[in-house]
Amino acid sequence: MASTLHGDSASGNGDQQILKQLEATRARLIHQYTAKAVSEADVQDTFERVAQRFADARVRAFVPILVERGVRAELDH
């Protein structure tokens, strides 16, 4: 997981749920984009970079979908 996004601030049940959603999103994106001949490293790097944008988000409920949309926008260009 994006260490800069989660770090030590991931506490509480809500944050744990967000972390699980982000992991599922990461795995899904890797699966989908490696099937399209995008390297796993490129997907990982893009995921980390996009996730970093939301590292200080106060409202975290929408972070997984925002990260997914950002990654897709960059990889589908």
Which helices and strands appear, and what pairs or packs with what?
Layout: H1 3-6, H2 12-34, H3 40-52, H4 63-75
Helix pairs in contact: 2-3, 2-4, 3-4
Account of the 3D structure:
- By secondary structure, this protein is an all-alpha fold.
- Helices cover 69% and strands 0% of the residues.
- Helix 2 packs parallel to helix 4.
- The chain starts with a helix and ends with a helix.
- 19% of the residues are buried.
- About 6% of the residues have low confidence.
Question: Care to give the gist of this entry?
Answer:
By secondary structure, the protein is an all-alpha fold. Helix content is 69%, strand content 0%.
Structural class: mainly alpha
Largest sheet: none
Strand content: under 5%
User: Average pLDDT, to the nearest integer?
Assistant: 89
Approximately how much helix is present in the residues? Answer: 55-70%
Order of helices and strands: HHHH
| Total domains | 1
Distance between the termini: 24 Å
Low-pLDDT runs? 6-10
Report Rg. Answer: 12 Å
Note the overall shape. globular
Say how many strands there are: 0
Number of helices: 4
